[in-house]
Amino acid sequence: MSSTILRQASGAARAVSRKCAFSTSAVARRDFVQELYLKELKSYKAPPVAKDAHVGVVKAYSLPPTPKAPTVPADLASELAAYDASEPVVAAAEPKVAAVSEQGVTGAEAFLETLEADVPQAEGHH
Fold first, then answer.
1. Among the listed residues 39, 42, 116, 1, the one whose alpha carbon sits nearest the alpha carbon of residue 108
2. Backbone angles phi, psi at 89, to 5 degrees
3. pLDDT tens string 65-79
4. How far apart are CA 19 and CA 13, in angstroms?
């Protein structure tokens, strides 16, 4: 009987010591930085914002003017006939300098010949 009482007493003592160990270690593990951060966070007050803070920064919006519908001329047929009869205006033609290639051939023919020519390869690469 005494052995069962001793076992129960030692088990109860262990349970009490465990509870005390956890409670004291929890107090010892308090994070000072976290406590300080939370205290500062709770005491922070945002600066007041002026009601007219946007004045001078934001431009006032106004709708663009409504476009006017195009009007058809009264004598459309005569204007079209005058347009058809007119000669096209050609800008003053500047003399074009023809590009002369190495062989002396100019224009599109020279360009096509350069495209069709074989690309010379370096001696080291085959």
1. 116
2. -85, 125
3. 999 998 888 888 899
4. 10
